[in-house]
Design a protein that fits this description.
- The structure holds 2 protein chains of 2 kinds.
- Chain A is mainly alpha-helical.
- Chain A contains 14 helices and 3 strands.
- Chain A has 3 domains: 93 residues, no CATH class; 123 residues, Alpha Horseshoe (Serine Threonine Protein Phosphatase 5, Tetratricopeptide repeat); 30 residues, no CATH class.
- A two-stranded antiparallel ribbon of chain A has the order 2-3.
- The longest helix of chain A is centred in the C-terminal third of the chain and has 23 residues.
- In chain B, strands 1, 2, 3, 4, 10 and 11 form a 6-stranded mixed beta sheet that branches. A 6-stranded mixed beta sheet of chain B has the order 16-15-12-13-14-17, covered by helices on one side.
- By secondary structure, chain B is of the alpha+beta class.
- The radius of gyration of chain B is 25 Å and the shape is globular.
- The chains are: A mainly alpha, B alpha+beta.
- The interface between A and B is medium-sized, with 23 and 26 residues.
- β1 of chain A pairs antiparallel with β20 of chain B.
Chain lengths: 271, 415
């Protein structure tokens, strides 16, 4: 294979928007890359009529769209539809497509609830906090599945709290932390709640305050001071911290990019 | 019958000749531009104290009488980007050429009372500022870009030749052009063993200084015959030449001054005296149905430019620019992804399929990204038949890896 891949089409004038993340896609190659690297976010209905219209009308890839549509109409599984799309675009070699299919299949073997939390965690990792929160909240609505266990729900709420922190919503974060603790008494979690309260200035509820002993508090304060000294809690993310190490022009660019990123996040979450 | 006129111009610094396509004879026909001649000086003259312009002989006469101010060597002025000040107002060379083209085209359309369908200019040497200006001047008159062409004299000669009967195209066909621009020799050979056929032509300025003024006196004419005949002998030495074409105002009366030359020229060869040959060639270029042939001459790209790329999962060599295309109208662009590459290789193959050369352009200043996530736009353009301009732009990878503003520009010879 040569080291240059001819683009399958010109870039789309009107991009395709991925609802989950708000990402705008301008080419079939970007689409394949997104699927390959974000398969946790690719649902059964990802390849829908809108996507096929995008391939057909915006990218002029009617042949690709028709083949994918045929596979989909034949009732093939999502993995086969995605594989067909990737094979038609020729962005990834066959070996990579097979590797993708293995990973995708193994992900799909998880229970629906596990898939949901994997997806939400993945969104968190990619910085889509509101989109992640939307999924975490789904565990709160409706009947709770008892088979998932308290540990699972504690983790969900703990992650919700982190998402709220990332968004600067400290009161909501505290509520999520305390709800997590209500699922399972965990000394480690209690320590996190105390540290968060110290860092954010948001008071713990009297119930939680009552649980914390003086000894614990002394030990945690010691640990907190050490961490504070390293400044890790002050920098909300690596990106925001790095913004302030740049010169004035680049800092302005970085801040604008950060604001854009946050706006996009927000837009994605409210879709 | 075509709706409008197909007009061919031979536009030089010293003279202008014009031909049109004549539907009645189905041939290109020169236009008489004055009572006595089918050429006029490329001179423009502004009538004093009036916004009125004269061209050609009328311009020269007016300047001699002192009732106007003349500007000549218009093309040289355009190439230099010069200006001329007439009655206190400064005109750019472009503005003067606009007027000259407006007046000449106006003359032709008025003469035939028909609008312009296509206009093709041929010039001694096809270079960017002049060709651009000619196109702009025509566009200002409402002629669409696609209906304007600018050729070199050599291309016009090839277009002319390819319209000749097949028996006139065997072996070498040569052309002598003696005009106010000097004496030039064109040599054409058509290679029929390749598909498509290749029409090769070369032009050379003959070293003998040959001014048309020497034809004014008897001793001068004798000298001219001696110079020209020795020139012909030298050029014909050892070559099988079947057809000889003569053109230019200097050779129109060769029967009167060139007996010695003609005896050599006509020795077992056919000799054709053709008026306004380049203007007629330009007309044929405008007809657009010339026999399929790759031109290898000045004005045409001397080598193909291609790249190795994966297309639809298959490694291929794709040609971006074909040898033989007109450099002035040729450009190409393509978009591709860098799959672990930090540079691109352009494959340069000279016309006739001789050995290719590879020119690598490093892309080290592009941002480092994972393999396959840098989309690149490559644009190729020419500033002469041998000089390739390359512009490579980082297009990023959508919102996943936004484009940087990095652009790499390069210019090199493909000879």
């Amino acid at each position: 294979m040569s080291g240059l891949l001819l683009a399958s089409s010109p870039l789309a004038k009107h991009p395709f928007k991925v609802l989950e993340t708000g990402l705008l896609i301008y080419s079939a190659e970007e689409l394949c890359y997104y699927i390959y690297n974000n398969y946790y976010l690719v649902d059964d209905d990802f390849v829908d009529d809108d996507l096929l219209d995008f391939l057909r009308d915006e990218l002029g890839l009617s042949q690709v769209a028709d083949r994918v549509a045929t596979v989909r109409e034949e009732g093939a599984g999502t993995h086969l539809v995605l594989a067909c799309l990737m094979r038609e675009v020729h962005y990834y070699p066959e070996a990579s497509i097979k590797e993708f299919l293995q990973k995708y299949e193994s992900y799909r073997h998880n229970s629906p609830s596990n898939r949901k939390i994997i997806r939400a965690d993945f969104l968190m990792e990619k910085g889509h906090f509101l989109a992640a929160l939307r999924i975490y909240h789904q565990f709160d609505s409706g009947r709770r599945d008892p088979s998932l266990g308290n540990e699972f729900f504690m983790r969900v709420r703990q992650h919700m709290a982190v998402a709220y922190i990332k968004l600067g919503l400290y009161r909501e974060a505290m509520e999520a932390f305390e709800a997590a603790y209500s699922c399972k008494d965990s000394p480690e979690l209690l320590k996190q709640i105390w540290q968060f309260s110290n860092f954010s200035g948001v008071d713990m509820s009297p119930e939680i305050k009552g649980i914390v002993t003086e000894e614990d508090e002394a030990q945690w304060r010691n640990d907190y001071d050490e961490v504070s000294a390293q400044g890790s809690l002050l920098a909300t993310t690596g990106y925001t911290a790095s913004m302030f190490t740049k010169d004035s022009v680049r800092r302005k660019e970085a801040v604008n990019r950060y604001i854009e990123m946050s706006k996009k996040n927000y837009r994605a979450a409210i879709v | 019958m075509s709706e409008g006129l197909i007009i061919g111009f031979d536009l030089c610094d010293n003279y202008t000749q014009i031909a049109i396509y004549d539907e009645e004879t189905s041939d290109a026909q020169e236009i008489k531009l004055t009572d006595e001649s089918d050429e006029i000086p490329t001179t423009i003259c502004k009538v004093r104290r009036r916004e009125e312009w004269k061209i050609g002989e009328a311009a020269c006469e007016m300047a001699l009488l002192g009732s106007g101010i003349a500007v000549d060597k218009l093309l040289r002025l355009v190439k230099k980007g010069g200006v001329a000040t007439l009655e206190g107002r400064t005109y750019t060379a472009g503005e003067l050429l606009d007027i000259y083209i407006r007046e000449t085209l106006g003359f032709v359309t008025a003469k035939y009372d028909r609008k312009i369908e296509k206009v093709i200019y041929c010039v001694k040497e096809l270079r960017t500022p002049l060709a651009d200006q000619i196109v702009k001047s025509c566009e200002k008159l409402g002629v669409k870009r696609e209906n304007v062409k600018v050729l070199s004299h050599t291309e016009a000669y090839l277009y002319y030749l390819l319209r000749r009967p097949a028996e006139q195209l065997t072996n070498y066909s040569v052309l002598f052009d003696l005009s106010k621009e000097g004496l030039r020799y064109f040599e054409c050979n058509i290679l029929r063993g390749v598909t498509p056929n290749v029409a090769q032509a070369e032009v050379s300025d003959l070293e003998e200084g040959f001014s048309l003024d020497i034809l004014e006196s008897e001793p001068g004419r004798k000298l001219a015959d001696n110079i020209f005949s020795s020139c012909v002998q030298r050029r014909f030495n050892g070559k099988i030449i079947s057809n000889v074409y003569l053109t230019g105002s200097g050779l129109t009366g060769i029967q009167d001054w060139g007996k010695k030359s003609l005896s050599i020229l006509c020795n077992r060869r056919k000799v054709y005296l053709e008026k306004a040959l380049f203007a007629k060639g330009a007309v044929w270029a405008g007809m657009g149905d010339a026999p399929t042939c790759t031109f290898v001459c000045d004005g045409r790209i001397s080598a193909s430019v291609g790249m190795n790329m994966t297309v639809g999962g298959v490694a291929k060599n794709i040609t971006l620019i074909e040898a033989g295309e007109r450099w002035y109208d040729s450009s190409a662009s393509t978009e591709f992804y860098l799959d672990g590459e930090d540079g691109i290789d352009l494959i340069i193959t000279p016309a006739g399929g001789r050995k290719s050369a590879v020119r690598r352009i490093p892309l080290s200043q592009f941002p480092q990204r994972p393999a396959g996530t840098t989309r690149v736009r490559l644009e190729l353009s020419f500033s002469s038949e041998n000089e390739l301009g390359v512009c490579i732009r980082d297009m990023g990878f959508g919102e996943i890896y936004p484009a940087s503003s990095e652009v790499i520009e390069n210019r090199f010879s493909i000879q």
